[in-house]
Specification:
Layout lengths: L3 E6 L8 H11 L4 E6 L17 H16 L3 E6 L10 H17 L3 E5 L10 H15 L4 E5 L8 H6 L6 H8 L5 E4 L11 H11 L4 E4 L31 E4 L5 H17 L5 H13 L1 H9 L1 H7 L7 H10 L4 H10 L7 H6 L1
Parallel strand pairs: 1-2, 1-8, 2-3, 3-4, 4-5, 5-6, 6-7, 7-8
Helix pairs in contact: 1-2, 1-8, 4-6, 8-9, 9-10, 12-13
Length: 354
């Protein structure tokens, strides 16, 4: 069973261009991708400065992306992260939200995701307050699907260390109180889960009282450590059998838009082929589709250096790789060269300020 597949552009660091977003949607739609959610951490007008209006150029870009996605048969959505709004959901905040909803309705959205991640969670009545906000939004948004990202969107204890200990029974209360039509985003047993299993997803479904809507943090490569790598390998650890246990499967892509399309295509193949899926073969096929045969063979041959070694440990190989890929006239090769030059390095400062 192939679930609804989509892209959730939700990474830190240098954002994609509007053209790169539209090109990615056009590449993936023929392979079964059915939604595109715009939620880059770099868009401060959806995050810390959410009460301010988007600049005119960005508003035009969003409207164009919406039209493009819809023309491809994809739902278009936006992720809104109103910073710690649940601490004081007052009249002024509500008025600002109404203005933001009017803007989103104007550009045209099918999905609205209210994102409560990256915020303190050790506060009284957290689930109750977040449900109140979600229901308020549902009554006023023209979007036909509403999604919520919980403050604790994974079992991973790293969230408790960073954002405070999760309230006891938080997920169960959220699932019980939240309108059953509202989807709940989930990243799995870890922030960047190595695998998803039917057993885990069945347990989460029971907690949330609905199937989780997967926010899959692969091949995303943001963060000071992960930006050292190009995650190019085909998807593993996502057996087709999980399709029956999820509401949808959203992929958080890498900072490199063209290269991200390689693993994204492999996920569609994993669901299509089921037990017949072979991740090595899927990588070769997807790379050839995205890059062309010659460049694909080169990238697959250099996988240990690009995917596994780490930028700061390449040593003399870095210059050899740069020379090799500079010889290709292809946007995928140019992304590799730019990565080698440090164009996508992510610092902790970037993560703290986006």
């Amino acid at each position: 069973m192939t679930p609804e597949l989509g892209i959730i552009e939700g990474f830190y660091g240098k954002p994609w261009t509007w053209a790169e977003r539209e090109e990615t949607a056009a590449c993936l739609a023929p392979h079964g991708y059915r939604f595109y959610h715009f939620a880059p951490k770099a868009d401060l007008f959806l995050r810390r400065r959410w009460q301010e209006q988007h600049p005119a150029d960005d508003a035009a870009g969003l409207a164009s992306l919406s039209r493009k996605c819809r023309s491809l048969g994809m739902r278009f959505g936006v992720g809104l992260s109103p910073y710690e709004i649940y601490l004081d959901f007052n009249e002024g905040v509500r008025d600002a939200l109404k203005r933001k909803l009017a803007f989103l309705d104007e550009i045209g959205i099918d999905d609205l995701a209210i994102l409560f991640d990256d915020m303190r969670g050790d506060v009284p009545d957290l689930a109750e307050k977040q449900v109140e906000i979600a229901h308020w939004l549902k009554e006023r948004s023209a979007a036909t699907r509403l999604l919520v990202c919980p403050s604790y969107y994974t079992d991973d204890p790293v969230l408790d260390r960073i954002f405070g200990k999760r309230p006891e029974g938080y997920l169960e209360e959220l699932g019980q109180r939240l309108d059953p039509s509202i989807e709940i985003l989930w990243t799995g047993e870890e922030v960047c889960s190595r695998e998803f299993t039917p057993g885990h997803l069945a347990r989460v479904t029971k907690q949330l009282r609905r199937k989780p809507f997967l926010w899959d943090n692969y091949p995303v490569n943001d963060g000071p450590r992960m930006s050292q790598y190009l995650y190019l390998r085909a998807f593993t650890g996502r057996p087709a059998s999980i399709g029956a246990h999820i509401a949808a499967h959203g992929v958080n892509p890498a900072s490199q838009p063209v290269l991200s399309r390689i693993p994204a295509l492999s996920l569609a193949e994993s669901y299509r082929l089921g037990d017949a899926y072979q991740y090595g073969h899927a990588l070769q096929e997807a790379a050839a589709t995205v890059l062309g045969a010659d460049l694909a063979r080169r990238v697959v041959g250099d996988l240990l250096l690009l995917h596994d070694t780490g930028l700061d440990r390449l040593g003399d190989a870095a210059q050899k790789l740069r020379t090799r890929y500079a010889a290709f006239d292809h946007p995928g090769a140019r992304e590799i060269v730019a990565w080698l030059d440090g164009a996508w390095r992510i610092t902790q400062e970037i993560m703290d300020t986006q």
